[in-house]
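Whiteboard transcription, Tuesday session. T.W. wrote the structure tokens on the left side:
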């Protein structure tokens, strides 16, 4: 199929803000671009100041800002660039040589800019390391790339070798990507490029590539800012050709395939480093146990299963590498205080196998009274487990054991303000892999569908979202349940043994392969589930010492070149802590207004003005605002991001037309986002400094678009 260019999206001026508001990289359809209705902005004229047509406002004393979004105007230094004391490129005027490449700097002033020839731009930018300044000097236009939004990308989990996606290739120019997609057989052409790389040759036009081993942005922070992009139609799928800059804070040196060291490192597969990297492998296993009245038999069976594993490993070094934890959950103690706890971490320090068995024997007890309703607070248990004292560098696996669904988001007994999707994203960000053991009671068939739906989301296997690490066991089959737990614990112990022996890459014939036709076999289900989880976790573990390519500017596709249905890159927004604090305050005010409107029967915008007036620069803006985007309450850059907001265009009329159920659902969604923001804000390790002297509020976090309001 011929390649159809849908749009040419230039990263200059206010056009980006306009188009971002209607495009969605989060699943909503893009609107057709009409160049006559919204023409390309004119190129900046070299008159010494940024022209209004470029949508940038500079007052000469503070940071320049994007007129449409209020975002600070930033540039990305190219490799081997310098900052000069003034607009003079003499070597004796250098105040900072060889600036860190592609780490954002803030523009305070421009002079004599002429960007009419992108390959040879003219003029100067006065730059600073912090948004508040002070400026440190001037950089030549040819030494920087303008970065007029805060979008970055992260590599997605690649899945298992042979089953997952191909790695992203970085091309020298956009036309090379377009030519590949326009080939008679694009997939065959892409396969030939990968074959050339396997044979030790560098395909024409390919300057770098994503490493074969997984580079997790949450563990090893890197910067892949989106400089430019083009939306195209490929075989009926909308895909995006991205121009990316690539940087590692505090690291230098271009990682291209012409560099033999980088080429070798990028081509090393997980299996190539398995023996040497995995000998010190440790695995943390935390059970998240339903401890309501019906669950004592399963607590006892879990104890017996772990005790059996302890017996098998007593004379080996395996036990030294495995640590276990226990989180118990019941239900909302606000409703039933005698339940003693909603969720509880029984292991502030994870335990060895023997101590864990003793803990299950002496402390793990089911409640003596019944809860209100059949659903429990499993989400509270998972939320607590995500904050367990996991060991650094270990494989992290949480096993949920429950016979009931969890209270959904918006339910009065949901104590976390979270749903399965939010918890699953948090688990991903913390490199925690979830496995669910769902005990289905034939006496409560009405609960089965909701429980399966919730736990399928929680237990989706990273890198293969179509695979779910879930085991279904009939409540009457306590023996089958114990067998499933023994398989989970046994496979973990066996993984450690293979790692210590250097045989992880060898097939394991010690256990029979479960018959896929026997769908009700708990042990077989458990073996498939735990191996999928271990494999996904091992892909993360084996990428610990690999880095994303750095110091390059290249073009790539946001999809697998051999399968456009699979995303290779996940779009995120690089938020400062100060910006997240502003979002938290805005959501608190909006939720406060919703609450006040419900209790006092006031109009929503009237309540919003009363609740948030003191926090707003212009409280009177609410009087004439058509929707929330015009109130000044939400940061202006929200409208320029590529996702569909739940509240940005919420008007008085829309709010008034909502049913009570719709309002409750919206409030629940916003409460979930607010809780997520607070968790992110307190994630000390997740916030990164881009410059050595960056203050606390200038630290950045690559936040998922799904988290935005």
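and on the right, the sequence the group agreed on:
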């Amino acid at each position: 199929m011929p390649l159809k260019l849908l749009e040419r999206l230039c990263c200059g001026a206010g056009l980006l803000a306009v188009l971002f508001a209607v495009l969605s990289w989060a699943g909503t359809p893009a609107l057709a671009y009409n160049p006559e209705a919204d023409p390309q902005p004119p190129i900046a004229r070299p008159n010494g100041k940024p022209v209004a047509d470029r949508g940038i406002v500079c007052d000469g004393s503070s940071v320049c800002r994007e007129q449409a979004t209020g975002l600070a105007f930033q540039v990305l230094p190219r490799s081997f660039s310098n900052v000069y004391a003034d607009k003079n490129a003499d070597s004796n005027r250098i105040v900072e040589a060889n600036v860190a490449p592609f780490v954002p700097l803030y523009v305070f002033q421009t002079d004599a800019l002429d960007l009419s020839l992108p390959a040879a731009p003219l003029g100067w930018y006065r730059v600073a390391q912090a948004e508040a300044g002070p400026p440190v000097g001037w950089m030549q236009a040819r030494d920087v790339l303008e970065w007029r939004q805060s979008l970055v990308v992260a590599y997605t989990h690649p899945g298992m070798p042979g089953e997952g996606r191909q790695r992203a290739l970085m091309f020298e120019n956009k036309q090379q990507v377009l030519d590949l997609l326009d080939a008679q057989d694009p997939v065959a052409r892409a396969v030939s490029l990968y074959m050339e790389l396997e044979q030790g040759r560098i395909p024409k036009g390919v300057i770098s590539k994503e490493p074969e081993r997984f580079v997790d942005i949450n563990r090893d922070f890197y910067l892949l800012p989106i400089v430019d992009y083009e939306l195209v139609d490929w075989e009926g799928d909308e895909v995006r050709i991205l121009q990316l800059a690539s940087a590692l804070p505090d690291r230098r040196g271009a990682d291209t395939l012409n560099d033999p060291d980088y080429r070798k490192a990028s081509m090393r597969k997980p299996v190539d480093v398995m023996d040497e990297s995995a000998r010190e492998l440790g695995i943390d296993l935390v059970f998240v146990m339903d401890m309501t009245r019906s669950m004592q038999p399963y607590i006892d069976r879990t104890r017996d299963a772990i005790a059996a594993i302890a017996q098998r490993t007593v004379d080996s070094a395996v036990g030294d590498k495995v640590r276990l934890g226990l989180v118990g959950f019941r239900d909302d103690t606000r409703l039933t205080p005698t339940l003693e706890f909603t969720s509880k971490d029984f292991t502030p320090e994870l335990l060895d196998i023997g101590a864990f068995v003793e803990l299950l024997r002496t402390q793990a007890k089911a409640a003596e009274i019944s809860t209100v309703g059949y659903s429990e607070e499993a989400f509270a248990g998972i939320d607590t487990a995500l904050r367990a004292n996991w060991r650094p560098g270990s494989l992290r696996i949480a096993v949920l054991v429950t016979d009931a669904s969890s209270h959904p988001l918006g339910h009065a007994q949901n104590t976390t303000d979270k749903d399965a999707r939010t918890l699953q994203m948090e688990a991903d960000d913390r490199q925690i892999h979830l496995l669910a053991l769902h005990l289905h009671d034939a006496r409560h068939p009405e609960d089965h569908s909701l429980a399966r739906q919730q736990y399928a989301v929680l237990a989706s296997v990273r890198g293969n979202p179509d695979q779910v690490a879930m085991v279904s066991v009939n409540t009457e089959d306590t023996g089958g349940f114990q067998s499933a737990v023994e398989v989970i614990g046994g496979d973990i112990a066996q993984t450690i043994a293979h790692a210590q022996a250097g045989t992880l890459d060898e097939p394991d014939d010690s256990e029979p392969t479960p018959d896929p036709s026997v769908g009700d076999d708990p042990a077989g289900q458990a073996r498939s589930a735990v191996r999928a989880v271990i494999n996904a976790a091992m892909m993360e573990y084996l990428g610990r010492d690999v880095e994303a390519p750095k110091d390059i500017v290249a073009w790539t596709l946001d999809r697998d070149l051999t399968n456009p249905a699979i995303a290779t890159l996940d779009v995120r927004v690089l938020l400062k802590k100060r910006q997240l604090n502003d979002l938290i305050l805005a959501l608190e005010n909006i939720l406060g207004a919703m609450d006040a409107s419900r209790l006092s029967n006031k109009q929503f915008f009237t309540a919003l003005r009363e609740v948030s007036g003191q926090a707003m620069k212009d409280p009177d803006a609410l009087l004439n605002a058509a929707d929330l985007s015009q109130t000044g309450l939400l940061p202006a850059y929200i409208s320029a991001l590529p996702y569909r907001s739940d509240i940005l265009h919420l008007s008085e009329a829309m709010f008034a037309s909502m049913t009570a159920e719709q309002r409750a659902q919206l409030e629940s969604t916003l409460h979930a986002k607010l809780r997520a923001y607070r968790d992110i804000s307190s994630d000390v390790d997740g916030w990164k400094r881009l410059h050595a002297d960056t203050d606390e509020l200038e630290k950045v976090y690559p936040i998922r678009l799904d988290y935005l309001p």
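Someone added at the bottom: Confidence is low (pLDDT under 50) at residues 1-52, 509-518.
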